[in-house]
Design goal:
Blueprint (H helix, E strand, L loop, with lengths): L10 H13 L6 H13 L4 E5 L2 H11 L7 E5 L5 H8 L3 E5 L10 H7 L4 E7 L17 E4 L20 E5 L12 E5 L2 H10 L4 E3 L2 E2 L10 H12 L1 H19 L4 E2 L13 E4 L6 H10 L5 E2 L17 H9 E4 L7 H14 L1
């Protein structure tokens, strides 16, 4: 079976984790600090704060932006539920925003049209590692960039994803371009914002024995930090391989599938290679037939108004179309040319 994805783990990662285990320092030490600095540097930011997951990164960042009960947060409707759930866990109302029909990202115009007097902040997502369009600086709202899938991706003007808004959140779940198993990092230009997050991830403790606010434990382990440091050394090569495979798959299947478009000049990370099936192809039958032929394709994403945990009234037509017809194709750095050719052959047979 050709898997949908596979983490790229080599001897360097194993050795890095083993070294931490032998050291006796297992939580939030030098390896975590080095990983924070490396991620921040890749995002063009001076400050990075490692936390236990990408979702924790969003919760703590929205909290630092002052989001709470009675506030409204704009969230793209096409995504994993994390950003909407994060806002709701803080007591805020979520207002879902439809996405661009070609790029599947929210745009500045869509945000402006959706905002209300109650809107406190907006989450904008580089969906599947596809960089957002330009122009968000004109949106007069605190912005949180959900760059969970976009480490190493570049906006159309050459700036790195993760550099937009008051802060950006990244995830290192095993499906991401770089993995620490679980874990996340918040990157920001604001030193006070970073310090607030450092306290919030550690029981509200701003210094040993000094508690400035109630908090919980969202620390990252040293094993995860060491794993991330080893992974980020190979990030450029991972991105090069992902882009080569993604471009080859899109070229070979452009007459069968509709792929996610990117803004002019942008360089996606291709964390997920998403496409829409023709309307004549039943998606569930397609996925089952792919598996029967040794290729693990998957459903692409969720419409948050359909999951049952995010109240919404009204249609979101682009999101609904992408959810109904969207599939994810296998893509990972270690994919061989032979595996890629098999994916192409199976998809062409079934569409």
């Amino acid at each position: 079976m050709i898997p949908l994805t596979r983490p790229w783990i080599e001897d360097a990662e194993v050795a890095a984790v083993a070294s931490v285990l032998r050291s006796g320092m297992l939580v939030q030490g030098r390896a975590v600090a080095a990983f924070e600095a490396s991620v921040a540097d890749r995002c063009g930011r001076p400050h990075g704060v490692a936390v236990s997951s990408g979702t924790a990164a969003i919760v703590l960042s929205l909290q630092a932006l002052g989001v709470g009960p009675g506030d409204e947060v704009l969230v793209p409707a096409l995504t994993w539920p994390s950003p909407a759930h994060a806002a709701r866990c803080l007591g805020a109302t979520v207002r879902l925003v439809d996405v661009d029909p070609l790029e599947w990202n929210v745009t500045p115009a869509l945000l402006q049209a959706a905002r209300t007097p109650r809107t406190k902040a907006a989450v904008v997502i580089d969906q599947f590692g596809n960089p957002l369009r330009q122009g968000f600086e004109a949106v007069e709202l605190p912005l949180l960039e959900d760059a969970a899938c976009a480490l190493g991706a570049l906006f159309g003007d050459g700036r790195p994803c993760g550099s937009l808004g008051a802060a950006a959140c990244l995830s290192f779940h095993p499906r991401k371009v770089l993995t620490t198993g679980e874990g996340g990092v918040v990157v920001t230009d604001d030193p006070a914002f970073a310090e607030e997050l450092r306290a919030a991830r550690n029981h509200g403790q701003s210094a040993p024995g000094v508690f400035t606010a109630p908090g919980v434990n969202h620390r990252l382990t040293e094993m995860q930090g060491a794993l991330g440091c080893a992974q980020i050394e190979r990030l450029n090569e991972a991105l090069r391989r992902r882009r080569r495979h993604a471009e080859a798959l899109m070229d070979a299947l452009a007459d069968r599938l509709t792929f996610q478009a990117s803004p002019p000049g942008a360089q996606p990370s291709y964390q997920t290679l998403g496409a829409l099936l023709p309307a004549s192809v039943d998606r569930e039958e397609f996925l089952a037939a792919c598996r029967a032929r040794g290729v693990q394709c998957g459903r692409l994403s969720y419409g948050l108004h359909q999951v049952g945990t995010v109240p919404h009234e009204g249609a979101l037509p682009v999101t609904e179309r992408v959810v109904a017809r969207g599939v994810a194709l296998p893509l990972f750095p270690q994919m061989s040319d032979e595996q890629r050719a098999q994916v192409v052959a199976v998809v062409r047979e079934l569409t």
